[in-house]
Design goal:
Blueprint (H helix, E strand, L loop, with lengths): L1 E2 L2 E5 L4 H10 L3 E6 L8 E2 L1 H10 L5 E6 L4 H11 L3 E5 L4 H10 L3 E7 L13 E5 L15 H10 L4 E3 L8 H8 L3 E4 L4 E2 L2 E2 L1 H12 L2 E2 L1
Parallel strand pairs: 2-3, 2-10, 3-4, 3-5, 5-6, 6-7, 7-8, 8-9, 9-10
Antiparallel strand pairs: 1-13, 11-12
Helix pairs in contact: 1-7, 3-4
């Protein structure tokens, strides 16, 4: 058997970032907008819409946000036009059900690796398992227990996306260990707080390399 993974590159801020991800063979890009935390990766709603428009065919776009309500999240998706919405800070199944019903975009719930994911199984299109900070935001650059993440992949029906501290040098081992539906990266492909095309290429190649599982 072999292990390989789909890849999402998060933290797009320029059309060049989007093109670099597409050229490297990424499956999706993440665009961070309308979040109450201080992050250099956040862009305005207008810029987010422009970045979605810059994505070539077959490159999926994901709005990464921390919405106040399901309706505000759905409105933001309609304004920006993304394929997916990745929400941080929402771990209530009923609220996630409401969001899924309110938008045609596929919903990804980003949760801390230590959360009770079984309670969210079947309530969203995917679960992103991350190392989060006190605000509930990801992008910390910290890894977590991959063996536990593997157990979650095996026990849940909902696809699991692995995030947290991934980089070109360790993503291959992470894929082999966890066998996630996809992997997500932000800080691991940055240099001096900007997306580095060379690191993006190295990350995608390592995540998708067919090697013995």
């Amino acid at each position: 058997m072999t292990a390989r993974s789909r890849v999402k590159i998060c933290g797009m801020r320029t059309p060049a970032n989007v093109r670099a991800a597409a050229d490297a063979g990424a499956d999706a890009v993440g665009i961070i907008a309308d979040v109450p935390v201080d992050t250099h990766r956040e862009v305005s709603v207008d810029r987010a819409r422009d970045l979605v428009a810059a994505a070539p065919p077959f490159l999926a776009t994901t709005l990464v946000t921390m919405p106040g309500t399901p309706s505000s999240a759905a409105d933001l998706v309609e304004t920006i036009g993304t394929d997916h919405i990745q929400v941080h800070g929402i771990e209530d199944p009923d609220t996630l059900d409401t969001l899924c019903a309110a938008t045609p975009a596929q919903v990804i719930a980003a949760v801390d690796a230590g959360a009770d994911l079984a309670a969210l199984d079947g309530h969203v299109d995917a679960l992103l398992v991350d190392s989060t900070d006190e605000s509930g935001g990801g992008g910390t650059g910290e890894t977590h227990d991959w063996e536990r993440a593997r157990a979650l992949v095996d026990s849940l029906e909902t696809p699991v996306i692995l995030a947290g501290g991934l980089a070109p040098g360790n993503v291959g081992r992470a894929v082999r260990t966890v066998r996630p539906y996809a992997v997500d990266v932000a800080s691991g492909v940055e240099r001096d707080a900007t997306v580095d095309p060379e690191r993006v290429r190295s990350f995608v190649a390592a995540a998708k390399e067919e090697v013995p599982a």
